């Protein structure tokens, strides 16, 4: 894959317009710093922490847990400052949650927004353990004028011409959902540095940008938050001047574990003729998955669904295929309980958010 050197404007929100050109050096640099989950890891109900997708906007902060505290303030009756031990002493909750990057699939759009060139692997499902954000807010006591809850992390850098720490907000209604966690463990172990140690937010059903890592403060505001990551980043836009709509809940998606064996460079799949059980996973932030369909050379049929491992986690699907020698294209798509179905053509937008186009897998049957 060819690359080109670029000189983007310092700190620009969108340093380059979408392009059909080769990957830039900056995109490759981002790809090396972050990682996706190999799709063959979908064989596991829970993604091991080392395989879970990862996005770090700037640098991984170095935090001393012995001096770290979480500040809870703003429009509350009783501001709080809590140590990690005090947070861990609260009633714990453990839930499996499927997280997905809002930019997952960005690299398959044409023209391509210039950013992390995800193809479809920015996913993972882990068991997160923590304490309820709702309970903490109830203890602090929300004032009647409370509108939003702003979570701020320790990670700092430049974007959009702003020197900022990463911050996102939820409405009070979203922040006080019982399943929203202040998480300090993943898969039964303390958070590793890259996943937000010592404390992070986990917002089930929403794209990963809402699950702020390396938490330092929770601030209750009496007006909507207008920080960069809320008002400028993570928007469904059609052009650079379009204010767009906010990216929030995960769009319905099914993915297939690529069958057979791959060619090293192209990743094209090779399968032996005969019975092949196709397997994959499906999820949605807008309710439960009600249907998964699989197409072999554009002939669609229903797959069998298994119960999800949790209310906010993916479910497995299977499909039996009698593979005949030749070249074939496999596709899969899911439908959720709201009636939303994955599109067959990419829903293009300027930032490349929420591309849940039905997956294609090209297979040679020997």
Keyword list:
six-stranded mixed beta sheet; globular; 366 residues; five-stranded mixed beta sheet; 24 strands; disordered N terminus; mainly beta; 5 helices
List the helices and strands and how they pair.
Blueprint (H helix, E strand, L loop, with lengths): L2 E2 L18 E2 H9 L35 E6 L5 E4 H5 L4 E8 L22 E10 H8 L7 E12 L2 E10 H4 L5 E6 L2 E2 L9 E3 L12 E7 L6 H4 L3 E2 L8 E2 L6 E4 L4 E2 L6 E3 L2 E10 L5 E8 L2 E4 L1 E2 L9 E9 L2 E11 L22 E7 L1
Parallel strand pairs: 1-2, 3-12, 17-24
Antiparallel strand pairs: 3-4, 5-6, 6-9, 7-8, 7-12, 9-10, 9-11, 13-14, 15-18, 16-17, 18-22, 19-20, 19-23, 21-22, 23-24
Structure characterization notes:
The protein has 366 residues and is mostly beta strands. The protein folds into two domains: 12-246, Alpha-Beta Complex (Sulfite Oxidase, Chain A, domain 2); 253-365, Immunoglobulin-like (Sandwich). Helix content is 8%, strand content 37%. The chain is built from five helices and 24 strands. The chain has helices spanning 25-33, 84-88, 133-140, 172-175, 228-231; strands spanning 3-4, 23-24, 69-74, 80-83, 93-100, 123-132, 148-159, 162-171, 181-186, 189-190, 200-202, 215-221, 235-236, 245-246, 253-256, 261-262, 269-271, 274-283, 289-296, 299-302, 304-305, 315-323, 326-336, 359-365. It has a six-stranded mixed sheet with strand order 16-17-24-23-19-20, with no helix packed on it. The protein has a five-stranded mixed sheet with strand order 4-3-12-7-8. Strands 5, 6, 9, 10 and 11 form a five-stranded antiparallel sheet that branches. A hairpin with a 6-residue loop joins strand 16 and strand 17 (269-271). The chain is globular, with a radius of gyration of 21 Å. The two termini are 28 Å apart. Residues 1-13 have low confidence and may be disordered.
